[in-house]
């Protein structure tokens, strides 16, 4: 009874201003801190107790697209947008990294939104932002491939030697083989709008002496198996990948095919199944030992600025024996959180207005008249 009376007194003393202030604190705490921690509780558990020579965890980040300055609104909106997007990427990636403790980090292109057309000063600022957002790349084996936003290649944004050279100078080679543990990561730069089968086959021939590990993974920015079979089939038959990981589409999907690398006379037909993975909550398993089959996993974007409702980081737990388990670490819907800010701002404004209107006014006495 006494505690009830105390609570009633406290509620009587609770002013509208205090309620508004408490609401602001709660919303900011939830939107900027708690929601990210809550989201990690929903992620699939990744074993950190693994044999280094027999197991490997790869963390995939696709299409972060750091916001540029040319296509954004001016100060202060553009600055706020870049700041918020960068903080979102940094918060989510650091948690994904801590959750998985990956052996390898793979970026699947479109690192920057305006990397292709950036001035040298802009490009340097984007580089600094990249390293501040993803500092874990300095302590963990990292493989980075470019996307069309980094070096051109889509629409009228043409790819040029200058753009490619600039990317390779600050990151790594456009093509090649990156070895780590029992996996060869192949970078072939397969593009949908450019038919370069002979050039790619020559590249594979040059890379062949470096392909010595039991598992072979092609990483590419653009999706590969959506292209005409007559163009891709000769490349995949020659490269003999166990699996492909790609980005570009911003969504989580998977091309499944058990016979795509067989000697099929039907050169115009891919016998694959396109599987949606937007609702994946646990591991899916992929058999990498099927030598005539091939699968391609599309990793979703990790940036909320792409407008996709489902953002995340891909995680692959790979065993030397050829067993692969894959899942997605889904991220909080940032636009929903920003809408919460708008609603909270409206509520706080109404509360403060009500407080101002209902506040008691002190009566002003008229001045005394002296005779």
Automatic annotation (TrEMBL):
Domain of life: Eukaryota
Any GO BP annotation: cell division
Domain Calcineurin-like phosphoesterase: 56-251
Bilayer topology annotation: Multi-pass membrane protein
Transmembrane intervals: 338-359
Annotated compartments: Membrane
Main location: membrane
Keywords tagged on the record: Cell cycle, Cell division, Membrane, Transmembrane, Transmembrane helix
Protein's name in the database: Cell division control protein 1
Species for this entry: Aplysia californica (California sea hare)
């Amino acid at each position: 009874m006494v505690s009830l009376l105390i609570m009633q007194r406290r509620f009587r003393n609770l002013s509208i201003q205090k309620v508004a202030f408490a609401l602001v604190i709660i919303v900011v705490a939830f939107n900027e801190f708690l929601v990210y921690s809550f989201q990690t509780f929903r992620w699939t558990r990744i074993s950190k107790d693994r044999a280094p020579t027999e197991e490997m965890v790869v963390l995939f980040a696709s299409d972060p697209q750091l916001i540029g300055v040319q296509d954004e609104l001016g100060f202060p909106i553009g600055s706020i947008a870049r700041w918020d997007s960068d903080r979102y990427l940094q918060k989510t990636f650091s948690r994904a990294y801590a959750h998985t403790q990956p052996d390898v980090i793979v970026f699947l292109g479109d690192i920057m939104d305006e990397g292709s057309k950036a001035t040298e000063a802009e490009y340097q600022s984007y580089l600094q932002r990249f390293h501040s957002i993803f500092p874990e790349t300095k302590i963990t084996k990292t493989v980075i491939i470019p996307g069309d936003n980094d070096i051109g290649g889509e629409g009228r944004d043409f790819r040029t030697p200058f753009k490619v050279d600039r990317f390779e100078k600050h990151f790594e080679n456009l093509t090649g083989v990156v070895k780590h543990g029992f996996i060869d990561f192949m970078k072939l730069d397969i593009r949908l709008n450019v038919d370069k089968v002979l050039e790619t086959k020559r590249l594979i021939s040059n890379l062949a002496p470096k392909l010595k590990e039991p598992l072979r993974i092609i990483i590419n920015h653009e999706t590969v198996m959506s292209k005409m079979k007559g163009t891709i089939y000769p490349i995949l038959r020659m490269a003999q990948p166990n699996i492909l990981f790609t980005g570009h589409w911003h969504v989580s999907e998977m091309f499944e095919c058990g016979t795509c690398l067989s000697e099929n006379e039907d050169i115009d037909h891919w016998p694959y199944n396109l599987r949606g993975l937007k609702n994946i909550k646990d591991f899916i398993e992929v058999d990498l030992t099927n030598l005539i089959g091939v699968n391609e996993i599309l990793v979703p974007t990790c940036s909320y600025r792409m407008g996709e409702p489902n953002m995340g980081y891909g995680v692959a737990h790979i065993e030397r024996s050829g067993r692969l388990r894959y899942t997605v670490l889904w991220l909080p819907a940032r636009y929903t959180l920003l809408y919460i800010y708008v609603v909270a701002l409206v509520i706080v404004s109404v509360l403060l207005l009500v407080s101002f209107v209902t506040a008691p006014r002190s009566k002003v006495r008229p001045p005394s008249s002296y005779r």
